[in-house]
Amino acid sequence: MRTLNGESTALVRPYLVTHERQEERAARQRWRRLSLVLAADFGVDLDTRDVHAVGVAAW
Questions:
Q1: Which pairs from 26-30 meet CB under 8 Å and 24+ separation?
Q2: How sure is the predictor about 56, in pLDDT bands with cuts at 50, 70 and 90?
Q3: Position 54 pLDDT exceeds 70
């Protein structure tokens, strides 16, 4: 009789993976909501781009 190698077999319950994905999605949603509140109520600029930046020509 052959024994199974426990390290090479992945035993992951599908409901556990689904739960973890839902938790990650909820955390991202909370972060987006917090960002919107900061932007709307306190005028915090969340844009990371520098709109007025001008590239300098390297000569």
A1: none
A2: low
A3: no
For the chain, what is the mean pLDDT? 78
Q: What is the CA radius of gyration of the chain?
A: 24
3-state secondary structure 1-59: CCCCCCCCCCCCCHHHHHHHHHHHHHHHHHHHHHHHHHHHHHCCCCCCCCCCCCCCCCC
Q: With contact defined as beta carbons under 8 Å apart, do 47 and 39 qualify?
A: no
Q: Are 20 and 13 in contact (CB under 8 A)?
A: no
Cα angle: 51, vertex 57, 59; to 5 degrees: 165
Which residue has 């007025």 as its token pair?
52
